Amino acid sequence: MKLEAECLDCPPSSERSIKPRPVKESIQEINDNSWLIGDKILLSRERFPSSNFTWSDGKGSFYAISEAPYPPPPSRPLSDTANIRMVYDAGGVSAVWSIGEAFCKVKVLDSGATREHVTLHYLHNKRPLSFAIPDVHYHAEHDGRYYIILSSLAGQTVTEAWPNFDEAMKQHCVSQVVNSCKELAAWQADSISGVDGNYLPDAFLGISKDFDPQTLLDSCRALEMDCSTFLFYHCDLGPGNIIVNHESGSIGIIDWETAGFVPKEWVRTKFCISGGMDLPGDDQESRADWRRRVQRQLGVEGFSEITDRWLTRNED
Predict the structure, then answer these.
(1) Which of 102, 148, 154, 297 could form a disulfide with 178 if both were Cys (CB 3.0 to 4.6 A apart)?
(2) What would the pLDDT profile of 253-270 be if each residue is shown by its tens digit?
(3) Which domains does the chain have, with CATH numbers?
(4) CB 86, CB 43: distance < 8 Å
(5) H or E stretch including 214?
(6) 155: Cβ contacts below 8 Å, ≥ 6 apart
(7) What pTM does this model have?
């Protein structure tokens, strides 16, 4: 869903240009119950739900989204008492905040890439699924930034839960993720792209930041991957993107911004090469435990990998 309304009493948009703040400063506090997001979006906390763009704060009230007035009201950095906290900061490129029972993600816009809300709409149309996915409460694009607010999923990330898992539970999570890969792989396309044919921004797949489908196809052919058809894949199934529901034992999967259609070999290969899928810790053996288990199970399920060829290419 997206707000399309125009402010009837505001100056033309060309006269309302406001230099965007650094990404990590995108959310500013107006008062105890209202905030600015990107100086264009007004976030309010209310006693009752008041619009389609509403979700619970988890404490009996609700957050609502509307268009911010122009000029925007005075604001200040988030206070320590706000029920809004940053949970991720990618060095000026993207950031994520927890807002009640939702997350707000702000990132520098990649104009050619498939938007995450488009991918999630595609997934919702494929339900029922064996895993949970977020709902999209709101999305917008302003001043070269992409804003999306997503529902939170019940449970803990694998990153948080892994140290307390016994062997049976670890293998249970691995099996569920492998099953999700098999489930997604049933959906196929004839190009390496997002679900709408736009770019798939997986920096590991190509040899440059050119994510044009033909460029990625040439790269995959050079690695001798099977490019006869392409399977749908999340492309970032690290432990921080897997949510474990302790009550049901089921999983949820978040962060679909790099999902799309890829050669089958890439599903397993990504686990073999991406340190970004590691668990936290000082010991390399322990850090790689998650992705090592998943890639081995994928091998049992018939997914091959081209790790050696990929490493050789990237050493040249």
Answers:
(1) 297
(2) 999 999 999 999 999 999
(3) 13-151 (3.30.200.20), 156-315 (3.90.1200)
(4) no
(5) helix 213-222
(6) 161, 243, 244, 245, 246, 251, 252
(7) 0.92
